[in-house]
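Quick review question:
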């Protein structure tokens, strides 16, 4: 079971999205067409196969406009849904239900898309021992939600922000003067709870990095043969993370080289929205 994000973290995003949509006068279509005290029952239904994530967004969008509304989860976050599957049922003030519809569906569809793509990657590497992780290539303001969706899809979160861990990239190395020197400085700076990861783009840099005991080495755009050689060279002295050139076609072969982790930016920056609709019942 996936532990949901606290409402405290999600509500500000919902409030901002609703304010953007309601504009200066609210939903004038609903005001024009629907009695103020009318009630409406609806279902949130999947239009295509996928992995569910983000039901709290739909619930909180509705609750923001009608605190008395009822919202019942049928297919929870982290579960698979076939086309036509009911994800949730809701009942409340008709104007509120319709005004909250798009905000809820936008986020529910986006997050379910992330979870669905993550599920595909995770299934492809099953049995290899490799773990699928995300990156910081997220939508500004939605990182916590998108990384939650990755967990719903069976993936694991990489660092959430720049203050989570030290990750020495190629530009850090260029500014510092070398891989080994960068790792040495990072080791001297880091507290006992802070891990150090360094990106390398060749086997020569890997050997230099390993001498300075990083916790993790990111193997950037390595060929399959070089990935296998890197695994043999490291001999378990550091966690090895493959990055670059990862897609649904290549991920299985990358996992079979023996790397520990495969980071996939596409999980959050290229996932297609899962088609989910709201239907009156």
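Suggested answer, residue by residue:
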């Amino acid at each position: 079971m996936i532990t949901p994000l606290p409402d405290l973290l999600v509500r500000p995003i919902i409030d901002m999205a609703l304010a953007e949509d309601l504009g200066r006068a609210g939903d004038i279509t609903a005001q024009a067409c629907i009695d103020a005290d009318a009630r409406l029952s609806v279902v949130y239904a999947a239009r295509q196969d996928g992995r569910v994530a983000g039901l709290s967004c739909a619930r909180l969008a509705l609750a923001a406009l009608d605190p008395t509304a009822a919202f019942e989860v049928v297919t929870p976050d982290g579960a698979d849904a076939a086309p036509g599957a009911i994800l949730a049922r809701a009942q409340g003030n008709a104007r509120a239900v319709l005004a909250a519809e798009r905000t809820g569906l936008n986020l529910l569809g986006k997050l379910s898309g992330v979870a669905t793509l993550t599920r595909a990657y995770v299934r492809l590497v099953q049995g290899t021992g490799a773990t699928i992780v995300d990156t910081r290539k997220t939508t500004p303001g939605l990182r916590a939600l998108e990384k939650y969706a990755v967990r719903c899809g069976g993936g694991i979160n990489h660092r959430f922000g720049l203050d989570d861990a030290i990750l020495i990239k190629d530009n850090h190395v260029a500014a510092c003067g070398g891989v080994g020197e960068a790792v040495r400085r990072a080791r001297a700076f880091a507290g006992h709870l802070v891990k150090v990861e360094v990106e390398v783009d060749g086997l020569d840099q890997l050997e230099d990095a390993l001498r300075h005991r990083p916790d993790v080495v990111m193997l950037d755009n390595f060929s399959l043969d070089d990935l296998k050689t890197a695994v043999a060279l490291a001999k378990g002295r550091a966690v090895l993370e493959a990055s670059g050139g990862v897609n649904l076609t290549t991920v299985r072969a990358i996992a079979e080289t023996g790397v520990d982790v495969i980071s996939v930016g596409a999980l959050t920056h290229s996932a297609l929205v899962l088609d989910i609709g709201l239907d009156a019942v």
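Why it works: The chain has a mean pLDDT of 97. DSSP finds eleven helices and twelve strands in the chain.
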